[in-house]
Structure formats: C-alpha cells, structure tokens
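pls design
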C-alpha cells in the first residue's frame, strides 16, 4: 500500500505549485498527519529556505523540521553524479523519505522544477525517484504555450514514459485558455484514458501576475513607502517618460508605474490617479536610476491618506523595464491571496473526492479541525446556496465575501449602497470583484414594495401599518430576512455590527421556528486538536427550564448528526449520576429524562460533570456503564452563564477554533455573529449556513 504521492513535471513554470497546494489541502481534509518532502531543491540563497517548502509548511502549519523536508540541493546532486555516485543519491533520498513515511499517514512528494538546463537528467531522476519510492505519480503540464496537438502528444509521451516504471494516477494540464478546455479534455481522454484521470485547469491571470515584492527582490530595490502593500499584483507595467497629461491616459488597472526618481510630476500624478474615481488603481511605483525624490516631495507623499508601494532601484529605466517583463511569478508564503486562489482553483477543477479515494486507502481515527473544515467546504460546494450579508460596509464582512467568492462556494448578496461598498473595498485593498456579487440597497430594490406589503400582511395582527412596514423593510436585517422568506436567498449571516436581538427579531417574527420546535437555540463547533465537539447553548437562552434544556439537547444532537459528528450527549452539571442534589442539578436530571422520553434512540447521559464527559478514565470511574461518559461529542450546558464562559475559556486556553454560534430551530437559517468576530469566523459561519440551507 502506497503512503505517498509524487507530483512531477517535465518543464518549468508548469503551475505545479497550484497542484501541490491543492493536494495538501485535500489530504489534510481527509487525514490528520500529512508530510511533505522534496527530494531535490534549488540552491537557496545563504540563510534562506526553499520557497516551495517554506510556503507549504508555514501555510499548512506542518510540524516538520526544515532539514527533514529535502534530501539534496541541485548542485549537491550534480557533484555526486559527476563523481559517479548516483546510487548514493537514490539511497539517501529513500532514507529521508522513509523517515517521513513512518511518522505520517501520507507524504506528498514534490519533484524538481526544471528551472535549468539538463532537463533530460531531471526527467530520468524524477522517474527513478518515484520508482524507488514506489509512489504513484501526478504529472503536471503547462498548457498556455502549445497548440492542442502539441499538448496531446506531449501528454501522451509523458504518460508513457512514466508508465513504464510507475502508476500514473492523473495528468493535470495547467494554464489552459478557457475556450480550449472542453476540446483538450476530450482529446486527452481519447488518447490516454485507461484509468488515468484527466484534469484541465484554466489559466488564472491573478496567479501569473508578479507582485511588487517580486519586482523589489529581482531589482534589489529599497522600499520607500507602502511596505504593507508589497503583495499588490502587477497586472500591467509602463514607463512614465512623457508629460503627465499624456501619461495618465496610458494608465491601466493594476499598472506598475516605472519612472526616474526625479520625475516628481509622474510620481505625484500617479498617486493622485490611484485615489481618483476617474482613473484605474495602480499597483506601485518603481523609481529608477537610484534617484530618490527631494525632501519636500517625500513629505508630501507621507501626508497622503493612501500610498501604494514606492521602491527605488539602481537600474536604469530601460534595464529595469526589461527585467520586470521577464519575471516568472511564484507563490510564496506571505502571499495568502495567491495561496487561497490556488487552492480554490484546484478544488473547482479537480475531482477531489475521487482523487482522495484513489490515494487514501484507510480511514483516520482522528478527526482534526482541518478535516472538519474541509468536509464543510466540500459539502457546501456540492449544492451551492445563496447567502445574504446585511452588513455590507464592514471590512471583515467584505474580506470574508472575497474569500467565499474566490472559493466559488456560495452566491452572495451584500446589502448596502454599491458606491459606499466600493469605497470600502478600495480603502482596505480587498480583492473583491463586485461584478461577482449581488449588491442591493433596500429602498432601491425592485422587490421593496412587495416586501413592504408582505410584511404588513404578516404583522398587521400586531397593529403594524404600512408606514411601519416600510420603515421595517428599510432596515438591513429585516430586508435580508425577508429575502429568505420570499425565496430570494437561502440564508443570512449577520451580527458583526448589529446586536443579536437586531439579527434575530425579524427571524422570530416571520421566519419562525420549525414544526414541533418551541425554542431557538445555538451551538458552537469546538474544533479541538483531535476532535470536534458541539457546545450548546452558549449564545441565546440565559436560563432554560428543564423542558427547554431537553429540546436544546435534541436539537444539538440532530445538528451533530447533520454535520457528520456521531451524537453522544452529555447534560452537564456540577454533579455526576445520582449523587448530587439541589435545584440546578435536579433541573438537568429532569431535562435528561424528558430528552430520553422524546428521543429514546439518543445516547445521552446526565447529569454529568465536564471532566467525566470528555475524559475516558474519569468517565468510566464515575459512570462505568455509560455509553457517553468519557466520549461525549455534544455537551449541553445548564445555562448561558456556564456555556458562554466555558466555550470562551476552552477557546482561549487550548487554541481551539470555535465556529459559530449556529442557530437551530428556525424554518430557514439565520445565524448571528459575535461583534468581535474575524473575517475567518464570518467565512466559516456562511459555509455552515449554506449547509443548513441544503438540509431544508
């Protein structure tokens, strides 16, 4: 049984990084311990790590010493080959790989980069290494500089060459023009087929564009301004030598302005154009010739509200421009946007479920937070839902929206004035394309009057008149909730700015609770190191009675089941079993009996203390015959004070990821955020909301 996968290419700039990042994300979503290994790396600069290794182990937080992640540098291999010690090379690579194989469930092995001459030696080496490690191979090819016939012939040659020695699991052709994808895929399947997966990935221009940071490194420049924006992508570049009035007409979106350091007119004009609504945004400014603007100009720039990166380089304008034009962009650890785009591209175009099933022949007994999040994402992708975000002006909401759109996981509506939302996107440099999002202002919506009439009909028995209905529908929470009620959206996430009451009131007024449900409650998914536990209710009900507590337990168990967690319910108290007495423990005991009567199939224990619920040794000593003690997955707290404090204590002290709160009991999903939430919290909550909508 293979415990690894080898990613190989036959040419430079194939887009192999996209495949490696996507594979790593996929593997970590399926098993807990994934290793990473590069048999041969490029010779790094003194004191520097290999860029591929640094990107993978830092982004995915792989606990692996850098020296263990590779066997040789390129020059070390060439020296050994020249000494006739090729056998020693393979022996050492096998030894290094076997060390990782023993410590990880599966190891992702990345082949060489083909960034130098002697590609025939590299090809032979990649085949020899994969053969000696007994690993199936994924071949990555570049598709943007060949015609279809050449691509197909190259793919078949690659396949047949590797197939003589190893199993070829998949051929992934990257950077293909969109219009060629269907035909190329058909040609490759006809020519190769035979059980080898064929994947065609389109060219993503944002991945091909270098960043200002890459320009800075190539030209050995000095940063004058905008150090925090060096990851700005360079979509175009142009030299500013003409007069400003003429140069401004040549600016394009994402332009890198290249000009001599003494051209204050071009520098200041480009900066002003960047913040003007009448001109496109620029990515940065390169000042050539080693010239730095005079002090009054520097002071003027310092006082601007927004300054793109400005770097000074010693190269002349001509040489600098030529060098920038030859940059081959790379993905590096600090550029999170490129990493997330790479992963989203891979997941969109690769059948990850089939690939994972082909690779992973065992089921991990550990369920990590990363596995839980991956499963959530894959489930949401299978049936795309439409989620409305009423707080369209909040920076965190906009950053989460950008990630969600990039992952193609949901359709989104942002509520607010488009001009104001666009201003905030530009102010905070958020990579969100509003062309891919539905933006609506309540009073300007074509549905506004219909929503007003509907709300009036639903609430007139509460003495609501048309003016009151119109005021209500002007409110973003009411408008967003009405979108769900009318079927114009599937769910809503709010609360980054608004209070819980503001978010929930409209939902309770006309979304209402499911049949048979009398109380809306909440859960948090607590992603601990080796498991996911469900905590409820930690956000909504201050002091539920026994009947309500039982209903919270049953709802939480159903939520666990819906999200792939086997429900074993612990009704928490300060006492375990029948020993404790008092009003509070009696309430938990009564709630447990009610829940057992209403859901006799449910594994439930109560009252039980927290340690007895989650620690097998303590659980078995206190309740030896319990099916829940020591292995509870759903923990129900007796009141909000206990639940809210406990979830926050666990989150802070253990570093656990807390996803939620997720509301349960409503007819359609509406979820409330904490006002201290992060963009990551919003991202996760939207995905959970989409999954809730799938179950309706």
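designed seq:
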């Amino acid at each position: 049984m293979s415990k690894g996968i080898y990613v190989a290419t036959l040419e430079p700039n194939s887009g192999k990084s996209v495949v490696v990042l996507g594979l790593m994300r996929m593997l970590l979503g399926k098993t807990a311990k994934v290793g990473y290994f590069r048999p041969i790396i490029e010779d790094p600069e003194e004191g520097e790590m290999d860029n591929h290794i640094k990107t993978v182990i830092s982004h995915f937080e792989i606990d692996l010493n850098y020296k263990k992640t590779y066997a040789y540098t390129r020059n070390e291999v060439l020296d050994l080959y020249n000494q006739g010690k090729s056998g020693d090379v393979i022996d050492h690579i096998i030894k290094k790989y076997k060390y990782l194989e023993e410590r990880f469930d599966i190891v992702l092995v990345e082949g060489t980069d083909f960034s130098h001459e002697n590609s025939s030696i590299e090809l032979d080496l990649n085949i020899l290494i994969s053969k000696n490690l007994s690993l199936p191979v994924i071949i990555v090819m570049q598709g943007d500089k060949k015609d279809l016939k050449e691509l197909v012939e190259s793919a078949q040659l690659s396949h047949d060459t590797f197939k003589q020695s190893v199993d070829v699991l998949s051929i992934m052709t990257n950077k293909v023009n969109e219009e060629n994808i269907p035909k190329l895929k058909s040609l490759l399947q006809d020519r190769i087929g035979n059980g080898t997966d064929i994947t065609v990935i389109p060219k993503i221009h944002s991945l091909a564009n270098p960043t200002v940071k890459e320009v800075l490194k190539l030209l050995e420049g000095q940063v004058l301004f905008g150090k925090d924006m060096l990851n700005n992508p360079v979509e175009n570049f142009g030299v500013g030598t003409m007069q400003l009035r003429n140069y401004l007409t040549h600016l394009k979106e994402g332009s890198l302005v290249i000009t001599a350091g003494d051209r204050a007119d071009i520098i200041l004009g480009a900066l002003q154009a960047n913040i003007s609504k009448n001109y496109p945004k620029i990515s940065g400014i390169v000042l050539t010739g080693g010239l730095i603007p005079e002090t009054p100009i520097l002071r003027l720039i310092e006082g601007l509200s927004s300054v793109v990166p400005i770097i000074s380089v010693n190269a002349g304008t001509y040489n600098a421009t030529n060098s920038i034009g030859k940059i081959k962009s790379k993905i590096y650890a600090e550029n999170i946007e490129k990493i997330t785009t790479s992963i989203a591209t891979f997941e969109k175009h690769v059948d990850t479920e089939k690939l994972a099933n082909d690779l992973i022949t065992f089921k991990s007994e550990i369920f990590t937070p990363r596995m839980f999040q991956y499963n959530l994402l894959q489930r949401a992708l299978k049936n795309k839902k439409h989620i409305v975000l009423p707080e369209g002006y909040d920076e965190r909401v906009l950053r989460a929206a950008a990630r969600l759109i990039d992952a193609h996981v949901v359709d989104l509506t942002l509520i607010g004035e488009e001009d104001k939302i666009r201003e905030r996107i530009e102010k905070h440099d958020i990579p969100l394309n509003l062309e891919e999002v539905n933006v609506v202002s309540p009073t300007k919506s074509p549905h506004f009057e219909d929503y007003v009439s509907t709300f009036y009909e639903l609430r007139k028995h509460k003495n609501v008149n048309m003016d009151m209905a119109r005021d209500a529908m002007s409110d973003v929470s009411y408008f967003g909730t009405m979108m769900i009620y009318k079927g114009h959206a599937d769910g809503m996430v709010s609360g980054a700015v608004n209070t819980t009451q503001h978010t929930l009131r409209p939902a309770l007024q006309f979304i209402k609770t499911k049949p048979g449900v009398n109380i809306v409650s909440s859960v948090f998914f607590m992603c601990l190191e080796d498991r996911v536990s469900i905590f409820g209710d930690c956000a909504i009900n201050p002091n539920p009675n026994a009947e309500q507590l039982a209903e919270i337990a049953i709802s939480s168990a159903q939520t666990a089941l819906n999200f792939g967690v086997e429900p074993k319910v612990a009704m928490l108290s300060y006492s375990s079993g029948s020993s404790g007495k008092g009003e509070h423990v009696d309430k938990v005991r009564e709630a447990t009996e009610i829940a057992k009567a209403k859901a006799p199939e449910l594994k439930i224990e109560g009252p039980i203390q927290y340690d007895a619920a989650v620690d097998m040794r303590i659980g078995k000593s206190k309740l030896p015959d319990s099916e829940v003690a020591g292995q509870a997955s759903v923990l129900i707290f007796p009141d909000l004070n206990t639940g809210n404090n406990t979830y926050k204590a666990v989150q802070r002290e253990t570093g656990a990821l807390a996803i939620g709160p997720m509301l349960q009991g409503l007819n359609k999903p509406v979820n409330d955020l904490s006002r201290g939430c992060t963009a990551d919290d919003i991202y996760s909550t939207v995905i959970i909301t989409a999954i809730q909508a799938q179950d309706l």
